């Protein structure tokens, strides 16, 4: 079963430019993937320009077959060749390009999937299942604040112990 997400950035005019991502939208995968590998406005804009995504990976990559079923490769051979590349419905399967633009954050959240990731120009934020405050405005957390380092290690993320984001600060005695 897929855990769907939306990935977006905010334009200087305040509009939200967003794409759908079908697989692995939970914070320990897509959240950490975005936090580690998509950290410049240019790379994020390039990712969003692909349109709807099947799966997010560390590299934007190049046009490739959508899955191993479309080739004469085994799934292991396909993963070795393309496993680090994001798979996009338009680029890699020839479907219609779909990038959505919203006038504001609430209208974007009204149209979102389970998780909505927003690049604020400095870091990734996430809205979990349309969560809103008492006034009905969407609530966001910093992705890094909701990640569990132990879960990241269990999932095979390298370097969690050395990541400054997860270092505890010594308490003053």
What this model shows, in words?
The protein has 173 residues and is of the alpha+beta class. 28% of the residues lie in helices and 18% in strands. The protein is built from seven helices and eight strands. The protein has helices at 27-37, 41-49, 75-82, 89-93, 105-110, 143-146, 149-154, and strands at residues 5-10, 16-21, 53-55, 87-88, 100-102, 115-119, 124-128, 141-142. It has a six-stranded mixed sheet. It has a two-stranded antiparallel ribbon with strand order 3-4. A hairpin with a 5-residue loop joins strand 1 (5-10) and strand 2. The model has no long low-confidence stretch (mean pLDDT 93).
Task: Provide a compact summary of the structure.
By secondary structure, this protein is α+β, with helices and mostly antiparallel strands. The chain has helices spanning 27-37, 41-49, 75-82, 89-93, 105-110, 143-146, 149-154, and strands spanning 5-10, 16-21, 53-55, 87-88, 100-102, 115-119, 124-128, 141-142.
> Mean pLDDT score, rounded?
93
Alpha plus pi helix count: 7
Question: What is Rg?
Answer: 17 Å
Q: Characterize the main sheet.
A: 6 strands, mixed
Strand fraction: 15-25%
Describe the oligomeric state of these chains in a short phrase: single chain
Low-confidence stretches: none
Task: Specify the overall morphology.
Answer: globular
Spatial order of the strands forming the largest sheet:
5-2-1-6-7-8
Q: How much helix, percentage-wise, in residues?
A: 25-40%
Based on DSSP secondary structure assignment, what is the total number of beta strands? 8
**Element order: H for helix, E for strand:** EEHHEHEHEHEEEHH
Distance between the termini: 48 Å
> What structural class do the secondary elements suggest?
alpha+beta
């Amino acid at each position: 079963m897929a855990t769907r997400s939306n990935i977006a950035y905010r334009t200087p005019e305040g509009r939200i430019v967003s794409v759908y991502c079908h697989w692995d939208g939970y914070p320990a995968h897509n959240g950490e993937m975005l936090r580690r590998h998509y950290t410049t406005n240019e790379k994020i804009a390039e990712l969003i320009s692909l349109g709807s995504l099947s799966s997010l990976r560390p590299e934007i990559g190049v046009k490739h077959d959508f899955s191993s079923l479309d080739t004469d490769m085994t799934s292991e051979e396909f993963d070795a060749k393309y496993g680090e590349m994001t798979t996009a419905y338009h680029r890699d399967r020839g479907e219609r390009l779909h990038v959505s633009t919203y006038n504001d954050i609430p209208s974007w959240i009204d149209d979102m999937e389970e998780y909505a990731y927003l690049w604020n120009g400095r870091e990734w934020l996430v809205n979990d299942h349309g969560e809103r405050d008492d006034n009905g405005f969407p609530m966001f957390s910093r992705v890094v604040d909701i990640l569990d380092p132990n879960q990241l290690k269990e999932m095979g993320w390298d370097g969690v112990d050395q990541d400054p984001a997860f270092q505890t600060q010594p308490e003053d005695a």
